[in-house]
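It is worth pausing here to work through a concrete case rather than discussing structure prediction in the abstract. The textbook approach is simple: state the sequence, then state the predicted structure, then interpret. We follow exactly that order.
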Amino acid sequence: MIHPCYPRDPRFQRLYRALDRALRKPPENLARGIKSLPPVGSLPTPWETRALPALLEYRQRKLWGLELIAKHGLLSAAPHVPAAGSVPSAPELSYKTWPGRCELRDEATGEYSRARVGQAVPFMSWDDFTSFVTAHKQQPGCSAPILSFSEVEPSLDYELSDDYPSSTPLEVWDREEPEEGMIHLTACDLGDAGVITPTWNMQFGYPRFLIADEVLQKGETLGLVYAGTAGPRDRLWRMACVGDWRGADAAALELGNPALVKLTQERDALCQEERLGRIRDQIARDGGLTPRTLVALDDLGPEHSAAHLAKALSPGHRAVRTAMRIVARRHGPAWFEAVRKLRLRLGSVSESHEDTDLVEACEAFLAKWPTRPSHTACQHTKAAGPWARAGRAIELG
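Step two, the predicted structure:
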């Protein structure tokens, strides 16, 4: 049920109405049909829309876990039920039980499902959802919804962390609610729209969410739109109808029709401009760059994140560990000088062990490139084409 504090977002209402049209046969004049669709901004962003079928698949997996627990009586505390073992009908799953609760673990993917006596709905958290997406996108036969969401959110598997200077009061670390900067931008947007309802799970001590009834009711249709079995022409129309211009542009390129490519690229560019504006607003609301806005920029491309990465690679910056995780995944020595300077500064300002993990990350990166490059990261990575101006627009002062 939608939480009363979260009003319905008209963009999602329009999306729900557009789903039936998306599954119809594309018009003969596809270019004219595309031009008749609502403008960019009228519907949810591709990041939000692609999250929906992935969230529904995640929820279905959790429900399956609840069914297994109920089927095998793992919450019954009966003498014949061991406190730990493998689930009889699913040997790839192990379980542990405590009085009144049970936990399943998939040994192949590492994902968890939890249940307690009297529970009617699955426990779902954004952190667990991102782990689910990360694990399943690497498995053979990964579903189209998971793949499509991970295409626009490749940083989902980054462990976000807020990093405070050592002078930060201890009570900052003792807050009951998790730091907002640790939650991905898409999760914030879906929560603001009332699509997911964030709550605090007192039983297990972690933030969780529920999915709005309206999304559950549209689950089958959303799954068909992102099923991944349609040809490029049908897929282009479906993606255009739901405002996923990133997907529409990919389908247009596959079709090889220059006129359609021009239409979709123009709208895809507007989607990215809209995303950049959303990130800029979040940076202002957060009082500066945080892990979630840094990875959101990097997901759009290194030309948008290079300047911010350079600033984040500084002792005490709240996104320094996330910046190191991003840099560590880059191929090539472009960030050698920035990481070397960070390591030197850590060595001179830190007398405690609080930055040990960061020092180790720097040294591991530097060890990969024993020969210093002749150029720096900011010289190596530059904004290109029409995105240069958009990228500069949100650089921090």
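Step three, interpretation. The chain is about 50% helix and 10% strand. Residues 301-397 form one domain.
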